[in-house]
Design goal:
The chain is α/β, with parallel strands linked by helices and 758 residues long. The chain is 54% helix and 8% strand. It catalyses: K(+)(in) + chloride(in) = K(+)(out) + chloride(out).
């Protein structure tokens, strides 16, 4: 596929969604044109920085997960991949809830199963309707995806056409409103907005057969349907009922009133600040249009952000593109520019055409239950209602199609063992088990039943994904990784760092507690993969970062010798191997483990006598044996094996060459040559004496352990014991330091020191 069909249109379809039609007008009315413009601009800039991946990689199934896991390693890839999967799954729930809201509120309100005459319980009844219908829609969509994804792809073009037609209808309506605004009157009591769902006329009275009688509005605010002996609400008595134009039009100048924010707590009445009103409180009547949720700038950021996700649609199809390196950046940037223009221009158009109280009316109660953005559209509000319903259903199907494949890609990589079952699929490749798990998680989002509560959840997961995409790109660029060759000429690592910072800031701006929960989930998955030991190794950037940090630290160590206060034994432990390449004195490693307690440098060395070309295999086997023994004895260090013609030469090579730069040993640990007096082979004591001489010549400390086989193991527990220190040779305090270090180990914490000075 080319740039247009393979990247541009899929990105448009994934970016435009339910928030544009159901919540953008409310965001503009609540935040004001200026702050709403800032919210949209920040969110668009945030996603536009995550463009580098995919233009040089053949991104297989899994999309951004594939990119992150191959760039940052399986631990980061698994953690962020699962977060991205959860975000995509909750996106399916959000789209389904949006479709149900359109269906029950604007298309067929009578289809509601649960109803309540009590206005206080009406919201709870609506949530139950959302749960029932949402579950039914979810089951239906899962069946469609289960039967075959080809049906979803066939309808994709139709759903995209619905989106485009709906957006064009908004622009056509905005242009038409400049000379012929649509007639949508809004009934006001003083400066308070009244719901038009239950009133017949916007007046306190009405004329019937040349007689003035009370209207329905009178009955809502007075305790009697008669003029006489009626006790009415004080605010109702002192204020007039007026009607204002809900859509004043582009030339009305209403934008000056809509520039500024109007954040309100839950339960407050939506008011028009510029309208006249008597300074009387009155009672709270449910015929007013009320705020259904406490609003703030941070809440609106979390609700709006899902409407700009979907930029990975091109990267996810990298394998199907004719020229991915060209198509992905061009198509994605064009899609982002198009959607950003649509969102930003709609913010201005909504503020310039629609009355502020109508913008803040989330469910269109003031305009007889019409979809607010539909009141502006031309030729009919039904164009937006039907178009948004089908586009939302299509986006939900796309999410239910993509999420199982993402989970299947993670499971097939086998980096998380308990997900292995979700890597299986039907004969045609459809991930059945992954689809069932996706449906179960999406059902949790549907049970929440509120679009405004689900949106911030998936915002966290998408923001975390984009954050790590930017981190991966910046890291690969700064480390100059050979396989990282983005050809997009305008890419720079500073853009990735800026995007990473924006993502992190937006996470905590929109919801700090959701951000912490998302990070904890990702951290737990990361540690789990690390603990299990990922079987895959893709040459990740974290290893490159570790190498760069190690190089920097080693160069710093070269600047000078350590101060006396920082001196501690950095060990070179010399082990002797028998004919079967087994360690003769493994308790030397026990001693080293208890002496070091994981701090500082420990190098375990040994020598194999022979020719390197002939004994290379033996050297590898011996090295593995020593590493396993080090792991068993909990020695954190390195293994160094040397093949030499003579044992003394090999030991000399180890003492001279082990370590790197400033990270070198300063102490040699070796065993006492047992039975050297009775041995007929003089090489035993000569090797020992030679080692002492080489160590002295290298100005290193020497620790010789005699009867090391009696040294307590790491698993032995002693309630009490003694360490006798015979300080005979004045060695600068070395003999005083060793018992102190040994006492730091848990086995010797309760031991006592006895000193003998001479």
């Amino acid at each position: 596929m080319g740039t247009f069909m393979g990247v541009y249109l899929p990105c448009l379809q994934n970016i435009f969604g339910v928030i544009l039609f159901l919540r953008l007008t409310w965001v503009v009315g609540t935040a004001g044109v200026l702050q709403a413009f800032a919210i949209v601009l920040i969110c668009c800039c945030c996603v536009s920085t995550a463009l580098a991946p995919g233009d040089h990689l053949n991104v297989a199934t899994g999309g951004s997960y594939f990119m992150i896991s191959r760039a940052l390693g399986p631990e980061f890839g698994g953690a962020v991949g699962l977060c991205f999967y959860l975000g995509t799954t909750f996106a399916a729930a959000m789209y389904i809830l949006g479709a149900i809201e359109i269906f029950l509120v604007y298309i067929v309100p009578r289809a509601a199963i649960f109803r309540s005459d009590d206005a206080l319980k009406e919201a709870a009844a609506m949530l139950n309707n959302m749960r029932v219908y949402g579950t039914a829609f979810l089951v239906l969509m899962v069946l469609v995806v289960f039967i075959g994804v080809r049906y979803v792809n066939k309808f994709a073009s139709l759903f995209l056409a619905c989106v485009i037609v709906s957006i064009l209808a908004i622009y056509a309506g905005a242009i038409k409103s400049s000379f012929a605004p649509p007639h949508f009157p809004v009934c006001m009591l003083g400066n308070r907005t009244l719901s038009s769902r239950h009133i017949d006329v916007c007046s306190k009275t009405k004329e019937i057969n040349n007689m003035t009688v009370p209207s329905k509005l009178w009955r809502f605010f007075c305790n009697s349907s008669q003029f006489f002996n009626a006790t009415c609400d004080e605010y109702f008595v002192h204020n007039n009922v007026t009607s204002i134009q809900g859509i004043p039009g582009l030339a009305s100048g209403i934008i000056t009133e809509n520039l500024w924010s109007n954040y309100l707590p839950k339960g407050e009445i939506i008011e028009k600040p510029s309208a006249k009103s008597s300074d009387v409180l009155g009672s709270l009547n449910h015929e007013y249009v009320l705020v259904d949720i406490t609003t703030s700038f941070t809440l609106l950021v979390g609700i709006f952000f899902p409407s700009v996700t979907g930029i990975m649609a091109g990267s996810n199809r990298s394998g199907d593109l004719k020229d991915a390196q060209k198509s992905i950046p061009i198509g994605t940037i064009l899609a982002i520019l198009t959607t950003s223009f649509v969102y930003l221009s709609n913010v201005v158009l909504f503020g310039a055409c629609i009355e502020g109280v109508v913008l803040r009316d989330k469910f269109g109660d003031a305009v007889k239950g019409n979809l607010v953005v539909g009141t502006l559209s031309w030729p009919s509000p039904w164009v937006i209602v039907i178009g948004s319903f089908f586009s939302t259903c299509g986006a939900g199907l796309q999410s239910l199609t993509g999420a199982p494949r993402l989970l299947q890609a993670i499971a097939k990589d086998n980096i998380i063992p308990f997900l292995r079952v979700f890597g299986h699929s039907k004969a045609n490749g459809e991930p059945t088990w992954a689809l069932l798990l996706t449906a179960a998680i999406a059902e949790l989002g549907i049970l929440i039943a509120s679009l405004d509560l689900v949106a911030p959840i998936l915002s966290m997961f998408f923001l975390m994904c984009y954050l790590f995409v930017n981190l991966a790109c910046a890291l690969q660029t700064l480390l100059r990784t050979p396989n990282w060759r983005p050809r997009f000429r305008y890419y720079h690592w500073a853009l990735s760092f800026m995007g990473m910072s924006i993502c992190l800031a937006l996470m905590f701006i929109s919801s700090w507690y959701y951000a912490i929960v998302a990070m904890v989930i990702a951290g737990m998955i990361y540690k789990y993969i690390e603990y299990q030991g990922a079987e895959k190794e893709w040459g990740d950037g974290i290893r490159g970062l570790s190498l760069s940090a190690a190089r920097f630290a080693l160069l710093r160590l070269e600047e000078g010798p350590p101060h006396t206060k920082n001196w501690r034994p950095q060990l070179l432990v010399l082990l002797k191997l028998d004919e079967d390449l087994h360690v003769k004195h493994p308790r030397l490693l026990t001693f080293a483990s208890q002496l070091k307690a994981g701090k500082g440098l420990t190098i375990v060395g040994s020598v194999i006598v022979g020719n390197f070309l002939e004994n290379y295999g033996e050297a590898l086997a011996a090295e593995q044996t020593i590493k396993h023994l080090m792991e068993a004895e909990k020695v954190k260090g390195f293994c160094q094996l040397v093949v030499a013609a003579k044992l003394r030469e090999g030991i000399s090579h180890l003492i001279q060459s082990c370590g790197l730069g400033g990270m070198k040993h300063n102490t040699v640990v070796m065993g006492w040559p047992n039975g050297w007096r009775q041995s007929e082979d003089a090489r035993a004591w000569k090797t020992f004496i030679g080692t002492v001489r080489v160590t002295t010549a290298a100005h290193l400390a020497l620790l010789v352990a005699k009867n090391i086989s009696f040294f307590p193991s790491n698993v032995e527990q002693f309630s009490e014991g003694n360490i006798d220190v015979w300080w005979i040779v004045h060695d600068g305090g070395m003999l005083m330091l060793l018992p102190f270090l040994l006492k730091q180990h848990k086995n010797q914490k309760s031991w006592k020191l006895f000193w003998a000075l001479q």
